[in-house]
Amino acid sequence: MGIRLPVWVWIGAVALSCVAGMVNVAGFLGFEHQAVSHLTGSTSQLGIALAQGHWRQVGHLWGLLIAFSLGAMLSGLIIQDSTLQIGRRYGVALALESALLLLAIPLFKHQQVWGAWAAAMACGLQNAMATTFSGAVVRTTHLSGMFTDLGIGLGHLLRGLPLPIRRLTLSGLIISGFLSGGVIGAWLFARWKYDALLAPALLTGATGIGYVLYRQWTTRQRG
After folding, report:
1. In Å, how far from its chain's centre is CA 169?
2. What PANTHER family does the database record attribute to this sequence (predicted)?
């Protein structure tokens, strides 16, 4: 099935995947060495911690899962619909994500677990927002679905079946965006430590402002 999404959604998906790559690297390189942009590994770690009775880690990991889910809940409260529409409050969601990332910086600096939770909440909000406006086609904070789509495309190619070019292109762009974000995030973290999160915070804030301006321009064009 082809993907019919506006150009601004494609650009936003790549930009947000880059943001997630930067944020996740900060989580990995930080004092807890914990992924914050996706929950599969964290859930496995939670199972290990429960089995071994490491209750401090259990509390940390449960908090991480809850924070990500609360971020997704906030997206649902703000956007309120699964239909892609310029009038939706995507800019508000992006501004809130930016604020959560800014909040995470001082918390991380004081080695507070709340820093990881704030970053995870920001990622949950972002992923839910992208899922909402793409009908689950776009996931910007983890890559399992993107690599799955590429694998399916390779299987179709080997069978001589038609290739879903748009889906494969989008998957490749999101993977590239996330990887680029990881490289940039690691480079920034080596120099600025947790202040490296200023970059994704500014990017989400700028994207939110850009969306609001685009929405206003579109509204005037229609009027």
Report:
1. 19
2. SLR0142 PROTEIN, UPF0700 TRANSMEMBRANE PROTEIN YOAK
Site of tokens 């994500």: 97
Q: Within 13 Å, how many C-alpha atoms sit on residue 160's CB side? A: 0
**Cα–Cα separations (whole angstroms), residue 202 to 99, 119, 134, 169:** 9, 14, 23, 27
- Both tokens of 28, joined, read 């990995």
CB 203 within 8 A of CB 14: no
- Record the pTM: 0.88
- The sign one gets for the Cα dihedral 207, 30, 120, 45 is positive
Q: How far is CA 12 from CA 87, 110, 134, 149, 183, in A?
A: 16, 32, 11, 19, 19
List the chain pLDDT tens, one digit each, 223 residues.
Answer: 455 667 777 888 898 999 999 999 999 998 888 899 989 999 999 999 999 999 999 999 999 999 999 999 998 888 866 555 555 678 889 999 999 999 999 999 999 999 999 999 999 999 888 776 555 457 788 888 889 988 988 898 888 888 878 888 888 999 999 999 999 999 999 999 999 999 999 999 987 887 778 777 777 777 6
- Tell me how far apart the alpha carbons of residues 114 and 39 are, in angstroms, rounded to a whole number: 16
> Encoding tokens for residue 53?
């009775």
Residue 13 identity (one-letter amino acid): A
Burial degree of 223 (CB within 10 A; 0-12, 13-18, 19+): exposed
